[in-house]
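Q: I have 243 residues here and want to know how they pack in 3D. Can you give me a structure?
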Amino acid sequence: MRDVAATDRALERTAEAISSNVGGVFDDLEKIAATVSAVATQAQDAPRRSAYAFLKRDLATFINRHSALIVGAGIAYAPGSLPEAPLWLEWWRGAQTGGEPRWVTHDLNPESLNYYDYTTREWFATTSAKGSPVAVGPYVDIGGINVNIITLCVPAPTPQGTHVLGCDLTLAKLEGVFLRALQLQDPTVVLLGPTGRVIASNNARIASGTLFVEEDLKQVDRSVDVSSMSPARLPWRLVTLRA
């Protein structure tokens, strides 16, 4: 017979581990965003890109500190906020060997076939509109690293508009946190995003990145919010399935 109490403890332990790990990433990203906002607010005119030169160092430190979870991070500036360019995106990808993160190139020319209009992307548009931290995904980062990722974003409000700082978290890395904390093979436990996409599970039949099907929803036995204190920031839940 299944030990219900043991299952409940495992769910609570797993929710705490995920909330703590991802929450730590959000907290550090918000600190960098606060500095960005302060620089822009204190400037007499619209700051130029050089005013944000510190971001290369701060984001490199951030990426290396959270390399167990994230693979890259950067900033997307509010449209028209920089004197040098109508749109500007700076993103760095963590190095495989743990060295300095490398610059990721994006085509920001509207006339180009490969134009990357970040202003229409959910991670930028939602964060700007809400003015609060969001976790977007999972989705396939086509053109980036071509794997399932979740983008954690925080706003940096300024007099010139809201910039968005974000980082990419791969499902493979998050799945490691999930499985190490869960330590259960039975029952089936699934970490779900707000749209019903699977973030992680302990059942090979339910793959990360797939949409939780109606048949599985009918089998949900227990449901636990991952971050009950900050559900808007991290609207994920752990569910168990009946055998």
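Q: Anything worth noting?
A: Helices lie at 4-42, 54-65, 122-130, 171-182, 214-217. The chain is about 30% helix and 25% strand.
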